[in-house]
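Most newcomers find our protein records easier to grasp once they have seen one. Sequence and backbone structure share a record, each on its own labelled line. Nothing more is needed to start thinking about how sequence determines fold. As an example, a complete record with its sequence and its structure tokens follows.
=====
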Amino acid sequence: MYVKSPIPRKKARIEIIPLIDIMFFLLASFMMVSLSQVHMKGIKVNLPSGVSGQTQTKREYISVSVDKDGHYFFDKDEVADEELMNRLRKVHESAPEAKVFVRGDRDSVHLNVTHALDIIRSAGFYKISFEIRSESLKGVPGPPH
């Protein structure tokens, strides 16, 4: 004979909603950490600031820098005009769609930055961006915008 218990019997349930919340939190945390890890390729220059700057991803790019004395740098290597042109042409042969980021020092003469731009265009690159420091981040060390 089967006697029914006065205590209602419930089946065990696994709630998945708290698990989903935790997974979304972990995903967002890892994304924020990975975005804050920016690899700097160029030399350190005193970038001019601007209001309309947007943060760009810098996975595959070339950095051309001009310091305040008018010296040119390919990534972190100081190069002369001819060497800069040769390196840019070699990169253009292997990756014609690569982006070029121009980093001009705030105290550099406009002619030097314009000359660097002319060399980059002569090498065949047309995806060129100028790096500036955003006004909202002025005085805060970190990646350029």
